[in-house]
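Work Package 4 report. The design task specified in the project plan requires that, given a folded chain encoded as structure tokens, an amino acid be chosen for each position. We show below one input record used in the internal validation round.
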């Protein structure tokens, strides 16, 4: 729950807690679309290396190519040093399986006619788009920078902010998300009845 709702939950009735690993990383879409400035030098270099080495094709994610996205997800999990039960593999798989019913938005990326990565998200409001999942093969250096940049370019006309959600306490994910220069790290709270 967002901080502005806390006054509606009196401390004598409710137990309120928060965990920094559950805070959302919020970015200006225009920054992710341009990678302009010194802060983005590394990401810009990775993006340029990727574009110079590969000729990616992006296709809207839909019922006809969900199996290709599943192939990417399974390969991503196989490459991961973390067991499937400790990653977001299961929830991402469920999102792919229920993609049409959930009315999600996504893009699937191909390199040399092979599925290489995908992004899935949805609008949170008129100003903010949330990216729930970004999965890709480590074989393509710079593919994540490309996918984030490409997504931001597509979404920039409509959405001012991109929400890349939390880091789940993963130090590498925290480092990566911080490197993109979040405009805000939005703290979230859990509320339960006090005992």
């Amino acid at each position: 729950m967002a901080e502005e709702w806390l006054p509606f939950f009196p401390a004598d009735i409710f137990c309120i807690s928060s965990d920094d690993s559950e805070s959302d990383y919020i970015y200006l879409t225009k920054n992710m679309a341009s990678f302009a400035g010194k802060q983005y030098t590394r990401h810009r270099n990775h993006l340029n290396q990727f574009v110079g080495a590969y000729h990616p094709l992006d296709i809207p994610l839909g019922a006809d190519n969900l199996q290709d996205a599943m192939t990417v997800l399974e390969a991503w999990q196989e490459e991961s040093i973390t067991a499937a039960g400790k990653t977001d593999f299961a929830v991402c798989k469920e999102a792919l399986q229920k993609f049409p019913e959930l009315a999600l938005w996504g893009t699937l990326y191909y390199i040399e006619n092979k599925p290489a990565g995908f992004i899935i998200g949805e609008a949170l409001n008129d100003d903010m788009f949330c990216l729930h999942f970004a999965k890709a093969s480590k074989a393509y250096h710079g593919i994540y920078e490309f996918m984030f940049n490409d997504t931001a370019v597509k979404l920039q006309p409509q959405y001012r902010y991109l929400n890349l959600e939390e880091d789940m306490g993963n130090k590498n994910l925290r480092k990566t998300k911080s490197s993109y220069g979040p405009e805000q790290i939005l703290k979230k709270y859990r509320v339960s009845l006090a005992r």
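The CA atoms of residues 35 and 44 lie 6 Å apart. Validation will be extended to a larger panel in the next phase.
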